[in-house]
Each structure stands twice: as C-alpha cells, then as structure tokens.
UniProtKB/TrEMBL annotation:
Domain Calcineurin-like phosphoesterase: 121-391
One cellular-component annotation, GO: extracellular space
Gene3D superfamilies linked: 3.60.21.10
Disulphide bridges: C13-C90, C16-C82, C42-C53, C142-C147, C148-C172
Family, similarity comment: Belongs to the acid sphingomyelinase family.
GO molecular function term, any single one: metal ion binding
Top-rank taxon, per record: Eukaryota
Organism listed in the record: Lobosporangium transversale
Identification of the protein by name: Sphingomyelin phosphodiesterase
Keyword Zinc: yes
Parts forming coiled coils: none
Length: 605
C-alpha cells in the first residue's frame, strides 16, 4: 500500500482504483486486520487530526470490510468511491439519466388549489447537536472538529485563545444551557402550533469519539427534553446523518445482511417516537422496517412523508454500492407510491428529511428526486422541509424538461431550516410557518434568533438569559413592492423564483438575504458584489439537482479565475502534536474507544 501511495508512475485516479482493489482483497482475505492497517495509514498520510483519524477508522472498519467485499470494481462502484470519497483522485463521473416509470401520467389540470383563507402555524427546528461534554471556560478556538471541550492531553498547547461561553460559541456544538433555553423559547414565539417538524441531527459532531451507546443515550435524553418542553405538541422527526452509528452510515434494506447492523437504531428511535405519542404503532412499525421512513397524517387532508435522506448522502459509504442503479435503497420508489396514493385521494403532501437529495448525493438519485418532485407538483406536494446546512436557506425546484428557468418552470420550494447549534459560526434559530389550513401551502415563514456569537459572553458575564428576537418575516422581506401579494396568496415557487431574480439586480436585497442566512452572525464570511461567492449563492438557490449545484460551483471558480483542482495530500502527515504526544497505534484502546491518555471517556450523557 505504501508503494502504491508513493508511486510516481500512476496518476491519482489509477492510484485510487488500485487501492480499492487492494482494499477489497484485504477485506476478503484478512478482515480482522483492516482496522489496524487503516489506522497505520491514517498516522502516515491523513490530513485529519491523528486522534480523530484513528477513532474514525476504528468505528468504520467493520462496515468498510463489508462494503469493500461487496463492491463491484469491474463496474462503476470503485470509480464513484474514488471520485466522492477521495476528491481530486478521479473526476466526478458524468451523470446518467435517471429513469422511472410513474404509475400514472400527470393530470392535465395539475394546479395548486385555491387558498382557503384559514391559517395555522407549524413549528420547524433542526440540527440540535447537543454536546453533553461541553465545558464552560475551555478553548473555543481549537484545532478539533468541535471545540469547547476538555480533550485532556490532546488539548491545543498554550494558553486559551478564546473562552467557551456558557451559551455556546461558533466552533462548538450546543451546550445544555442553550438547548434548554431554546426549548423554553419555542412556545413564546409559536404558542399555537398545530404540530412541529424536527429535521434531524440530535448527536454532537465528534464522530471519531462516539459509541453506539452514546448515540442511543443522546437520542433518549434529547427526545425526552423535546417532549417535556413541547408537551402535547405532535413533533415529527427525520433522521439526520449524525443520528446513526457510525455517523453518516445507513445501509439500505435491499441488502439484508448490512441492514441488520442498523436495525437496532431504527427500532430504538421508532420506539421513542411512538412512546412520545408522535406517531402511531403502525407508523412506528413501518419506520422500523423502512430505514426510519414513515408516513403520517398530522391533519385531515395532509400526508407527511418523512425520508431518511442519509441513504443518498455521499459520505454514507453504502451509497458506493450498486452505483449503476437509480435507487438502490428503494426509498424513492416508496415515495412515488405514497405520492400516487395521495394524488388519487386528492390530498396534499409535505415531504421532510434531513437534507434534500439534490446537493450532497450521487447524481442519479438527485435527478430521480427532481423528476418525482416535478411529477407531483404543484397539485400534490405542498412543501419540502430540510435542515443539515445550519443556515437559513431555500432552493427553488424547477421542471427538469424546461429549456430555461422561469416562473412557469418553478414547481416547488425546499425550505432549509436553520440550526439550533451555533457551529459553523451562525447563531441558533428556530422557524415557524403560517400555513393555509386547507391547502397546506406556505403563506409565510418566520425566524427567531439569539445572537450567541456576538452577545453570548456578555449575557454570561451579566448573568442574563439569551435575548431571542423575531428576526424576519419572509413575506415582508421579500415581497416585491411593485407586485404585491394578495393577503391569501401563498409564497409560491414562482414567488421565490422572482425573489432570486430580483436579488441578482438588487444588491441590498441580496445582502439582507445573506444576513438572514447566517442568522445575523457577526462572524459570517463576507460576500462582495460581483464575487464568485455571490454568483454561486444565487445560482444554487435555483439548482434543482446535485449536477446543477456542482455546475454552479465550477462556474463560480471560473469567474474567480482559479479552477479548484485540489488533490489529496498523500505524503504530508499531520504535523502538529498535542501537548507533545505522538500517536502510537497501539495506544488506541478498542474496548473503551479512545486513545490512552486522552482523558475523555464516553459513558452516555
């Protein structure tokens, strides 16, 4: 393997594909040694922190053995694995058209129903990421993936550069104080919610340290808190990529031997949702057998379809199997059946998931999802709700057959809810919707925010609670003064398309969007007029597939004058030690799951 990695005769793609063949052979002939080999390679070639790399390899090795063993290297599996798991090795493959036969043709009179004049409110919050090991006063500006923790001998050397506030910080997950404060705040802003959506990610971001027990305990405690503070409010939950063990991994049920490794998780969460009276026993049983996907009817006339979008996430290594298929997990096929059932019944549908499979998914699944949304919009699908990005965003989904993006080609909208965690330097926020009580179209969105980034330390020093405020109303912020909406009109896909087009000409409107995207964070990166980031942001607001998202990024790089041709650094080892400690693979304690001397042990919450 070292000879391969140091080869001067192979290009990066050849090197990666040969490495995949070696990994498969190793997995078939000596699976018990794979974990140690991967940790050795981490120590020499990884550009992650050494403690993080060793921990990740320990947690992933068993599933990687199964994945490498089943990978079809004569087909597209190995190539896709190189392109997406080792960016810069092989070029991203050209996408193939996704193919699907719908049960029925789209009705010729497929239009959004007329407004009813009646309104309800619906809560939406996301990306909780509670950190039970958060330590007030620890380093908030560290070299780890998340800070505000005591990593023992793996702490950054030298004095603390920035003190972790009681209320959180921009490189840290959610402290319990902020989590409880957020839950106390929700009823103040949304006292009359008919039901609520939580679009995933309960668990903290320390994927290299967590255990199966840690994930289970975090979910138990967090869902208990949701139930305690939200009381009788029906809360519908989607699985996030950090809600599994190992993080990001989710085998589809089409591979029973792999699926069984995650069945404990789906049994676990479905049982909690049922116990909290959020879903029925029948719905919970469906979730147990369908990767945490379920359908429910929050109100008469509305079906809510909850997807486990981790099945299409490129960091889920199980997606590197069966890459010749459009929908190897089968979940999008189930989605079509449910949408057709709702069309036949004349009911409206909301789709929710942690992330829409149009950004960080494989191209064919993304194209298939766009076709499904186009087939059942705007008459059936009334809204799509996601999280994941920690920011306050939206994406307009356009007709895949349209020659250009227009008001007429805009068919639906994906509402990406803001996060509770301040990680990624954005303030914690919650959202709620004003919704037509009969058509379930979105009439308005509201966001409330607490300025933890700018005021957290001040609030702590003065023994104050965070001050939450109503940040903005989408209807008031984005309505065109020259073309006002009627009071009963929803925020239609055409409305959001026009909003993006206005942002391209109105710099102040775009600046306002950027402020709200970061939830008023003073640490948000600037995005100047005419810059590549401005182009990319505006482009991606109307990018309906991962292919289009990638094209936005490539065009932005061209605009900037520099192609992004990063290649993996195969030779440079991690160069910074923590408190003088070098990693020795033998120091890694498999039973306890941490490196000897780290001083952090997982015992649940």
């Amino acid at each position: 393997m070292e000879d391969l990695l140091n080869s001067t005769e192979l290009d990066p793609c050849q090197m990666c594909q040969r490495g995949m063949r070696m990994a498969k052979e190793f997995s078939l002939q000596a699976p018990e040694y794979l974990s140690g080999v991967l940790r050795e390679l981490c120590a020499k070639y990884s550009f992650r922190r050494l403690d993080a790399c060793a921990g990740l390899m320990e947690r992933l090795s068993e599933q990687l053995v199964g994945i490498f063993s089943e990978m079809n290297l004569e087909g597209s599996d190995g190539y896709y694995a190189c392109a997406y798991s080792f960016p810069g090795s092989c070029p991203v493959p050209l996408h193939q058209p996704a193919d699907i036969a719908f049960p029925k043709a789209k009705p010729v009179n497929a239009v959004q129903p007329a407004p009813s004049g009646q309104t309800i409110q619906v809560l939406h919050f996301s990306d909780w990421h509670l950190d039970p090991l958060y330590k007030v006063g620890s380093e908030a500006k560290c070299s780890h993936n998340i800070c505000c923790r005591d990593y023992g001998s793996w702490n950054d050397p030298g004095p603390i550069k920035k003190r972790a506030s009681k209320w959180g910080d921009g490189k840290c997950d959610t402290p319990i104080a902020l989590g409880l404060n957020t839950l106390e705040t929700i009823p103040k802003f949304v006292p009359n919610a008919s039901f609520g959506l939580f679009t995933g990610d309960i668990v903290s971001h320390d994927a290299w340290m967590i255990s199966e027990k840690y994930v289970a305990d975090e979910e138990i405690r967090s869902y208990e808190l949701f139930k305690k503070y939200l009381q009788d409010l029906k809360l519908y939950v989607a699985m996030g990529n950090h809600d599994s063990y190992p993080s990001d991994q989710a085998p589809g049920r089409q591979r029973p031997d792999s699926y069984i490794t995650h069945k404990w998780l789906y049994d676990h969460v479905a049982g909690i949702w049922e116990k909290n009276n959020w879903i029925t026993s029948i719905e919970a049983e469906y979730a147990r057998s369908h990767n945490a996907m379920f359908m429910t009817r929050p109100m008469d006339g509305l079906k809510l379809i909850t997807l486990n979008t981790d099945l299409y996430y490129v960091r889920n290594f199980f997606t590197m199997l069966d890459t010749n298929l459009d929908d190897p997990s089968g979940m999008l096929h189930d989605l079509v059946l449910e949408l057709q059932d709702s069309e036949d019944r004349g009911e409206r549908v909301w789709i929710m998931g942690h992330m829409a499979p149009i950004t960080r998914s494989l191209p064919r699944s993304s194209l298939l999802f766009q076709k499904i949304v186009a087939r059942y919009s705007p008459h059936v699908i009334a809204g799509i709700f996601t999280g994941h990005y920690h920011q306050d965003k939206f994406i307009v989904v356009h007709d895949p057959d349209a020659l250009e993006q227009t008001e007429e080609s805009a068919l639906n909208v994906i509402y990406q809810g803001p996060s509770v965690t301040p990680l990624d330097r954005s303030n914690p926020a919650i959202r709620w919707y004003d919704v037509d009580a009969k058509t379930f179209s979105i009439l308005n969105t509201h966001t409330a925010v607490a300025d933890i980034i700018g005021q957290g330390a001040y609030w702590e020093a003065n023994d104050m609670e965070p001050e939450w405020k109503h940040e903005y109303s989408a209807r008031e912020t984005y309505a065109d003064p020259a073309d006002p909406l009627d009071p009963e009109d929803p925020l239609s896909p055409a409305f959001w398309h026009r909003t993006v087009e206005r942002m391209k000409e109105d710099r102040e409107l775009f600046k306002t969007y950027l402020q709200y995207e970061s939830k008023l964070s003073e640490e948000a990166k600037p995005c100047h007029k005419g810059s590549a980031c401005e182009y990319e942001a505006l482009c991606q607001m109307q990018a309906s597939t991962v292919v289009q998202h990638q094209q936005c990024t490539e065009d932005a790089e061209t605009l900037k004058g520099t192609k992004n041709k990063k290649k993996p650094n195969k030779k440079k080892p991690f160069s910074v030690t923590r408190a003088g400690k070098e990693v020795i693979v033998g120091d890694y304690d498999e039973e306890r799951g941490y490196i000897e001397g780290l001083g952090v042990e997982r015992r649940g919450m």
